[in-house]
Amino acid sequence: MKKIKLLAACAALAVAGTAMAQSVVTPAPQNVLQLTASGTVEVQQDMLSMTLVTTRDATDAATVQTQLKAALDAALNEAKKNAQPGQLDVRTGNFSLSPRYTKDGKINGWQGSTELVLEGRDFPRITQTAGRISTLSVGNVGFGLSREQRAKTETEAQSIAIENFKQKAAELAKGFGFGGYTLREVSVNASDNGPHPRMMAMQAKASFAADSAVPVEAGKTSVVVSVSGSVQLK
User: Fold this and answer.
1) Do the domain assignments include residue 197?
2) What's the domain range around 78?
3) Is residue 187 exposed (0-12), middle (13-18) or buried (19+ Cβ within 10 Å)?
């Protein structure tokens, strides 16, 4: 009987202790400063992406599909002659096939489109290849950064952002009358603010001579790395 009472008393103490622990409110951290700093590096875009497209229209779906396949196969055969990893990569893009309706909602034909994408770092190789493809036309031209260029530039921008964060934290600590600070938590985010891909008319290539390179010109983009977090003033 005494043993049962002792166990009950211990259980009561445990519950009371848990209730007291839960009722203790952790004091809010004092002298904590939230801040953000960034680093920006402007760099030349070294990746070119050209999307070649074509459309077909016929009374039946099979004919449209056959015509699109023939156009894409011919373009692929030409493009693969100059393909080189990293310099000119070739891949197929979107392929669509959909019915065409009359005002009464009845199907009176089919239409479709197909794409071939040329991308890489060798701009002359890509543009000359695009100029030699006769079954597709240039539909979209875009520029960007290669993985190597992006990684290198992000590292530079990150170093700048960290130094700016440290300098800003030290200045603010001094401004608030503290001798220094220690890091509590920090996060790092990267982005680039390059121009949007330039759209070209579907038949833009028709104005160029056969086998001539499609004219393109890359611009620059700004890689931005932001460092944000909190510091403990001391």
Assistant:
1) yes
2) 42-151+189-230
3) exposed
